[in-house]
């Protein structure tokens, strides 16, 4: 046997031993997982749980140890980074998952490794020196070297994934629910950076798992941390609270969003959706509405009215609706206003619950626009008293900003916009009923409004593009708007 072949078979044997060895950790993981914000299978007992990949990131016996796991939990694959120590210092007590009683880690404390600064620092070191480690591959942009020794801290707050900030200079997002294929949160920012679009922090390093017979799974992305930036959602709420206008920011955000869309359309494949595809899009929205109405009782009285928006889309027979790669889950919380006052967009993962293949499919850019317009409504409804005029002004300013860059006001694509706003409100009703029932009234208010028969509209004045603006590729004009923006 050649040296390489014997090293390979040793590695396979080690991996098999590791996979068997994690069996004794199963009971503690079954208890710990459902309590995590990022765990999608909340509310039901875990059935199958098995490790599909295990790798020790430090030599066996190191203190602390770091065990990288990919777990299949009822068909979903999760990434875990487990710290292993003989005992936990008080500062790490809150990270404890359990005490192993048997197997290779018997007698040791097993804990959330990302909460341990020593292990978080080690992860950065791995990203700084690219290469393979068992099933894991670490890569980086050679043009953007990352300095050594940056102090890590976990990002506080409940997120879909887990993020670490290093020296206030970089942020590492560790994806929790992972799947085969490149994650759009790596793919799109890299494509935008290569296209010279500065509206998105460019990935400087990333890591993935290469499992037998599968496309690589993106596991984590390191990108510059925009220190001192304001999250668009918090900023909007502060302005509202102080009774201040937000239209200048909304306008600038419209321009930034349009720039990102134009760059994505130029860098990645685009398609024109014909009547059949548009009807399929509408059918998907109708199906999502039906499924949500089964789950969320409050939605049921409005189901028939809401369906009108999707029927109108199916009937619009748009001759080639442009579709392209988009953000996919755009809302104010995914925007950052940096210290110099400009807007950046983050978190291109798309709606986390959707299958990866769906999230990577081109869609009309209006979907993102509808997401932001819904967000202005959310902000206005979080304020007491409800501030509808504030939301209307922001929505109009955002669309005007968008049109200044692309030459086309999204409100002209009324049927499409209404369908996407309705779809988003339906998505939000399900999201809120599952995660934040106290917020359900916010999408429900929109649902009531969107389910009403539409009133006659006034026309949106055409917006001249700003000098030097980016023309949208292949944007066929739809029929002139006849109805109001919902
Ligand atoms: N490049 C960045 N610079 C500054 N803050 C960031 C950056 N990326 C993310 N954040 C902060 O981290 C939070 C979570 O990031 P996000 O990508 O939305 O993660 P998740 O997928 O877990 O929701 C954001 O709301 C933002 O406050
Ligand atoms: O940021 P995530 O990818 O985790 O997005 C999910 O959670 C969001 C809430 O944190 C949710 O957004 C909804 O609430 C926001 C206010 O908290 C509001 O600005 C958004 O418009 C509204 O959709 C998002 O839908 C969900 O996918």
From TrEMBL:
Keyword check for Transferase: yes
Alphabetic keyword roster: ATP-binding, Carbohydrate metabolism, Glycogen biosynthesis, Glycogen metabolism, Kinase, Nucleotide-binding, Transferase
Catalytic activity: D-maltose + ATP = alpha-maltose 1-phosphate + ADP + H(+)
InterPro entries assigned to the protein according to its UniProt record, in alphabetical order: Kinase-like_dom_sf (IPR011009), Mak_N_cap (IPR040999)
MF GO annotations: ATP binding; kinase activity
Entry-linked Pfam families: Mak_N_cap
Pathway: Glycan biosynthesis; glycogen biosynthesis
Keyword Amino-acid biosynthesis: no
Chain segments carrying region Disordered: 450-486
Location of the Maltokinase N-terminal cap domain: 32-116
Record EC number: 2.7.1.175
Superkingdom per UniProt: Bacteria
Family statement drawn from the similarity comment of this UniProt entry: Belongs to the aminoglycoside phosphotransferase family.
Quaternary context: Monomer.
Protein name: Maltokinase
Organism: Streptomyces subrutilus
């Amino acid at each position: 046997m050649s040296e390489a072949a014997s090293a390979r078979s040793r590695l396979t044997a080690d991996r098999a031993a590791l996979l068997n060895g994690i069996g004794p950790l199963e009971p503690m993981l079954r208890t710990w997982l459902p309590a995590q914000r990022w765990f999608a299978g909340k509310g039901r007992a875990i059935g199958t749980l098995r490790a599909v990949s295990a790798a020790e990131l430090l030599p066996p016996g190191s203190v602390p140890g770091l065990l990288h796991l990919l777990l299949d939990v009822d068909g979903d694959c999760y990434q875990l980074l487990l710290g292993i120590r003989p005992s936990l210092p008080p500062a790490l007590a809150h990270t404890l998952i359990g005490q192993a009683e048997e197997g290779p880690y018997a007698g040791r404390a097993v804990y959330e490794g990302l909460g341990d600064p020593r292990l978080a620092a080690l992860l950065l070191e791995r990203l700084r020196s690219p290469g393979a480690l068992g099933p894991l591959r670490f890569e980086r942009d050679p043009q953007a070297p990352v300095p050594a020794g940056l102090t890590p801290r976990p990002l506080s707050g409940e997120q879909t994934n887990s993020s670490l900030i290093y020296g206030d200079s970089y942020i590492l997002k560790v994806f929790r629910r992972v799947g085969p294929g490149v994650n759009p949160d790596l793919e799109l920012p890299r494509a935008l950076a290569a296209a010279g679009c500065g509206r998105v922090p460019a990935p400087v390093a990333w890591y993935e798992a290469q499992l037998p017979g599968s496309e690589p799974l993106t596991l984590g992305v390191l990108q510059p941390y925009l220190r001192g930036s304001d999250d668009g959602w918090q900023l909007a709420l502060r302005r509202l609270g102080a009774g201040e206008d937000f239209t200048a920011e909304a306008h600038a955000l419209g321009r930034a969003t349009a720039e990102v869309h134009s760059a994505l359309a130029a860098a990645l494949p685009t398609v024109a959706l014909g009547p059949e595809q548009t009807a399929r899009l509408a059918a998907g929205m109708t199906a999502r509405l039906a499924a949500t109405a089964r789950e969320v009782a409050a939605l049921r009285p409005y189901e028939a009215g809401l369906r009108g928006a999707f029927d109108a889309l199916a009937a619009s027979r748009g001759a080639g609706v442009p579709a392209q790669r988009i953000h996919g889950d755009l809302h104010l919380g995914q925007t950052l206003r940096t210290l110099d006052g400009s807007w950046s967009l983050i978190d291109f993962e798309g709606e986390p619950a959707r299958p990866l293949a769906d999230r990577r499919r081109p869609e009309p850019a209006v979907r993102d626009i509808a997401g932001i317009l819904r967000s202005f409504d959310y902000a206005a409804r979080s304020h007491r008293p409800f501030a509808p005029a504030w939301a209307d002004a922001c929505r109009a300013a955002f669309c005007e900003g968008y049109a200044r860059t692309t030459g086309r006001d999204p409100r002209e694509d009324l049927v499409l916009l209404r369908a996407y706003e309705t779809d988003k409100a339906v998505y939000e009703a399900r999201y809120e009923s599952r995660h934040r029932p106290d917020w359900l009234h916010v999408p429900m208010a929109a649902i009531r409004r969107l389910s009403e028969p539409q009133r006659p509209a006034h026309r949106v004045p055409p917006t001249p593009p700003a000098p030097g603006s980016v023309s949208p590729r292949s944007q066929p004009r739809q029929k002139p708007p006849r109805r109001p923006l919902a």
